[in-house]
Amino acid sequence: MRYSSIGRMLLVTAVAISSSVTARAQFDDYSVPGRPEIIAPIPTGNPSGNGFFVNSSFVILTQTFALGKQDIAVRGLLDSTGALTGAPGTLIGSGRVALSTEQFGRRSFQPGYNIGFGYKFDNGVAVYANFTQTTRQKYSAGASLVPPFFRGSADLSDTFLTSPVFNFPPDYSGPDLKTTFDTNPAFTTGNFYGIWNGASVMDIQFNQSFTQGEMGARVPIFQTEYSRVYGLAGARYAWFLEQFYWRTVSIDLIGRAFPSYAAEYKNTLSQRMYGPYLGCGHEIYLGKRLSFGLDLTGSALMSITKERVKYELGDHTTQAKRSRNEFNVVPNVNADFNLMWYPIEGVQMRAGYTFQSYFNTRYMKEPVAFDFGALDPAYSTRAYRFVSGVNFGVGFFF
User: Which of 100, 207, 224, 260 gives the lowest tally of CB atoms within 10 Å of its CB?
Assistant: First the structure.
C-alpha cells in the first residue's frame, strides 16, 4: 500500500513536470499569438531575464539643405582705375551670373551608422546609450573662363569672372598683367586690381554632417497580451556642422597661376545642442516573431552656435578671420518607426524609419561676406529643419 502510494505520487510528479515542459515550449514559441514576452525591450529575444544588449544599424539619412541663395560671381571685369571706361568701377562685360549657390543642385542622402548598448533589469527597466553619425555630404559647383557655348562679347570680357570683394589689403592684389590692355602703352597696368576682379576659375562647396547621441532609460508603463506601452527619458545631444568653401584663382596674361594669385574663403557654422528629452513608445505583437514599434520623444535643446569666417591667401602667408558665438533654444521632436523580427532567442533584426524635426536653428542666409574688412555674412533663423531616413540593423541580448 505504501509503495502504491509512492508510485502514484511519482506518476503525478512526472505528469506535472511533463506539463510544465510542454507549457514552457509553447511559452517560447514566437509563432503563438498574444505572447508579450517577445514584445521585448530592444534588442532582446529573452525578455524574461536581465542582461546586457548591443545593437548596430546602417542608416541612410537626408537633411534640410540649409543654405540661402546668393550670387557669387558674374562674367566680366571691373575697370578699377577708370583708364578704360573713364569711370572707376565700371563693369566691362555682360554681367551675367556665373556662379551662385543655386547651382549646388538637388538634395542628397547621407549614409552613416548607429551603435548602441545597454542593460535590462529584471523589472523590465532598461538603460541605454545610442550614437548616430552620418558621413559628410558635399555639394559643389564651379565656373571657369569658358562661358556657356563660348558666347560673349568680341573682346572676350565674358571669359573673366568677377566678385564684389572690397576692403582687401595689397596682398590680395593678384597678377598685374591680366589682359592685353595691361600691356598697351596707352594704358597703365593694374587696370583690373584684385584676385576676385577678372579671375579665371572659381569653385564653391557646401558640406553638411549630422551627429546625435542619447543616454536614457526605458520604463514599462502598461502591458497586455498583444501590446505594451513604455516611457522614455534621458539626455540628448545633436550636432549640425555646415561649411561653405570658396576658392578663387586669378591667372596672369601668360597663363601662370602662383599660390599668391589664389584666395580661399571659408564659412563654418557649428550648432551643438544639449538637453533632456521625454517620450513614450508602443509595441504591438504581429505574430510570426514580428512586432511593430513606435517611439515619440520631445526635447528642448540648448544650442551653442559657433560662426567662423575666414579669408586666406593661397600661399597661406596671410589671413583675416572673425568668430562669433550665439546661444538659443531649439525645440525638437523625434519619431521612430521600427519593424522587429526575432529569428532566434537573443537576436533581433530591425528595419525602420526615423523622422526628426528641429525648430529655431541657424543657417547661412548669405554665406559670403564680400566686405573683407568686416567679415559679417548674413545668418538667419530657420523655422524648421528636418532629418529623416531609413535604418537596417541587428541586436544581440546577452
Answer: 224
**Quick one: pLDDT at residue 252?**
86
Phi then psi for residue 113, to 5 deg, are: -145, 160
Q: How many CB atoms lie within 10 A of CB 147?
A: 21
- Angle among Cα 275, 277, 283 to the nearest 5 degrees reads 155
List, edge to edge, every strand of the sheet that includes 197-199: 97-100, 71-75, 161-162, 197-199
- Residue 253 has what DSSP assignment? T
- The label of the residue with cell 499569438 reads 33
Report the candidate in 204, 279, 285, 282 with the shortest Cα–Cα distance to residue 245.
Answer: 204
3-class secondary-structure state, position 13: helix
Task: Collect all residues with Cβ–Cβ distance below 8 Å to 253 and sequence separation of at least 6.
Answer: 175, 177, 178, 179, 180, 182, 183
Q: What is the pTM of this model?
A: 0.83
Residue 20 lies in a domain: no
* Residue 152 and residue 94 in contact, taking contact as beta carbons nearer than 8 Å: yes
Q: φ, ψ for residue 124 (rounded to 5)?
A: 95, -10
Q: Where are the beta strands (DSSP E) in 81-200?
A: 90-92, 97-100, 110-120, 126-134, 137-143, 161-162, 197-199
Question: Letter for the amino acid at 228?
Answer: R
Going by their DSSP bridges, the two strands 71-75 and 97-100 should be labelled as antiparallel
C-alpha cell at 109: 542622402
In a domain, 36, yes or no: no
For residues 39-65, one letter each, b for 16 or more C-beta atoms within 10 angstroms of the residue's C-beta and e for the rest, the string is bbbbbbbbbeebeebebebebebbbbb
Three-state DSSP class for residue 15:
helix
Range of the domain at 239: 43-397
Nearest to 261 by CA among 347, 325, 200: 200
> Which grid coordinates are listed for 330?
531649439
DSSP category for residue 367: -
Grouping H, G, I as helix, E, B as strand and the rest as coil, residue 255 is coil
Structure confidence at residue 257 as a pLDDT band (50, 70, 90): confident
Domain assignment of residue 346, yes or no? yes
* Burial category of 236 from C-beta neighbours within 10 Å (exposed 0-12, middle 13-18, buried 19 and up): buried
Question: At residue 77, what are phi and psi to the nearest 5 degrees?
Answer: -135, 155
Could you give the angle at the alpha carbon of 321 between the alpha carbons of 319 and 322, nearest 5°? 170
In a domain? residue 35:
no
Considering only residues 1 and 142, tell me which one the structure prediction assigns the higher pLDDT: 142
| Cell digits of residue 147 | 562661358
> Who wins on pLDDT, 50 or 14?
50
Number of compact structural domains in the chain: 1
